[in-house]
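Changelog note: in this version the structure field was regenerated for every chain. One regenerated record is shown below for reference.
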Amino acid sequence: MSIVEALTVVPTDWNIDWGSVPDWFGGLGTVGTLLFGVLSVRRELRARRREDRAAQARQARLVSTTTRTEGGGVLRVRVANDSDGPIFDLAATPVVHTGQPGPDGRRVAVATVTGPLDRLDGGTAAELFVAVDRSVDLTRYASATVQLTFTDQQGNRWRREGTGQPEPDLGDEPTGAARSWPRRLWSRLR
């Protein structure tokens, strides 16, 4: 059936009751209230998610690293956990820079240190001595930063580079040797 045929079927004496002006205001007010409610709930959910992310990252922000070069082949990495709870599965990857840390300086990953730090209790620090490959002479480099990955006491995995903000690490296991679940459980219970 075409549109023209459909229009011929419609009676010409139809009277559509559009309602009164108060009915229109009531309908528009209802739609406006519904729209306002949906936008308010959406804004509240975003704020709640932001607060949840900040609460999750609270412990991760209190974990920091510092580096110091000793001689030409030893890099000293200090990991400090200033939070109240322990961190687990710590993996630190030192990176040396030819200039200031950033895009203009050349970055050289010198080694990966994964432990004996299966657990670092709250309020403590640990020092790692990294023996660098003989082909890398640390005296030529201006600075060093550490790419740190760890698990907080809630089980969230984090990645932090240098003094930057911690970010959730969506990778699999730490870069070190894979550990069995009984060993992970035992290190958390100690």
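Spot check on this record: The mean pLDDT is 77. The domain at 62-177+184-189 is CATH 2.60.40 (Immunoglobulin-like).
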